[in-house]
Specification:
Elements: E1 3-7, H1 12-26, H2 36-45, E2 50-54, H3 63-72, E3 79-84, H4 92-102, E4 106-109, H5 111-114, H6 124-133, E5 136-139, H7 155-164, E6 169-172, H8 181-187, E7 194-197, H9 207-217, E8 222-223, H10 233-242, H11 247-261
Parallel strand pairs: 1-2, 2-3, 3-4, 4-5, 5-6, 6-7, 7-8
Helix pairs in contact: 4-6, 8-9
Length: 265
């Protein structure tokens, strides 16, 4: 099974506007219309069986609405929805428990859009509770092309947060920190409760640097991810297949590791 661990799409009523605004802000070309149906088509065309939908509550008032949508997708055969927790909501833990009780397997945190630093103690309660509930936390990591002035989740900050909560499973997107890959090698590689995903690295990341990080961190903690609609999954798969690693490692990165992490096997 091939699983894409990092995909974005939106409710039909919001998709057109959201994709247009995000594409203009980051000067990126979207490869889908941002709807569930449009995204599923591109995912399937790339040979991917399932994908993790990463929702982001960029404002406190969006938290419940976005999570309601995630919960509505819980029984979809292709979509594995994650919820989102906003750091400035008063009901963070209650909302986290609601997601867990509904069957949501994890949450997405984007410190740049949510305007906090990833190691801020204000989120310690969420990080710790996720560990108790067995929920995964996926962070945006490194530069965001649409919000690149201040990086709120550098590898050094992520290392501090992750090491503080050893009982929680974290994922640092974009191979641990987009355009911060030397710092990833110094700060993140080897942390046991941390996975790295390949989102938006299929075309932009030097292959040798990817191989270096995989060797240092372990192929068993790398997850194939596209960042769809900003990169099509076939490009992510092509990059992984080009790596100078074993065939079994490639298979695990493209889906085996995700199956284990999500308890699909």
């Amino acid at each position: 099974m091939i699983i894409d661990f990092h995909v974005h799409c939106f409710p039909d009523a919001l998709a057109k506007r959201a994709i247009h605004e995000l594409a203009e802000r980051a000067n990126l070309y979207p490869h889908s219309n941002g709807t569930i149906n449009g995204t599923v088509k591109h995912i399937k065309d790339s040979g991917v069986d399932k994908f993790v939908l990463l929702n982001i509550a960029t404002k406190p008032k969006q938290q419940r609405t976005i999570n309601d949508w995630a919960i509505s997708l819980i029984n979809d055969d292709t979509v594995i929805p994650f919820g989102s927790i906003h750091p400035f909501c008063d009901d963070k833990i209650e909302e986290l428990k609601r997601l867990h009780n509904a069957g949501i397997r994890g949450i997405k945190i984007h410190p740049d859009y949510q305007n906090f630093f990833v190691d801020d103690p204000c989120m310690d309660c969420v990080y710790e509770e996720c560990g108790k509930l067995g929920m995964i936390i996926s962070f945006h990591a490194g530069v965001d092309l649409g919000l690149s002035q201040i990086v709120h989740a550098t590898p050094t900050m992520i290392a501090k947060a992750v090491k503080k909560h050893p009982g929680t499973t974290f994922i640092a997107a974009h191979m641990g920190g987009y355009w911060h890959w030397d710092e990833v090698l110094e700060q993140l590689c080897g942390i046991n409760n941390l996975y790295l995903d390949t989102a938006y690295c299929g075309v932009t990341m030097p292959v040798k640097k990817a191989e270096e990080i995989i060797a240092a961190h372990g192929a068993d903690r790398i997850l194939m991810a596209s960042d769809m609609p900003w990169e099509i999954p076939s490009e992510s798969i092509k990059m992984i297949k080009s790596l100078n690693i074993s065939e079994s490692d490639k298979i695990n990165i493209m889906g085996g590791n995700a199956e284990k992490l999500l308890n699909l096997i």
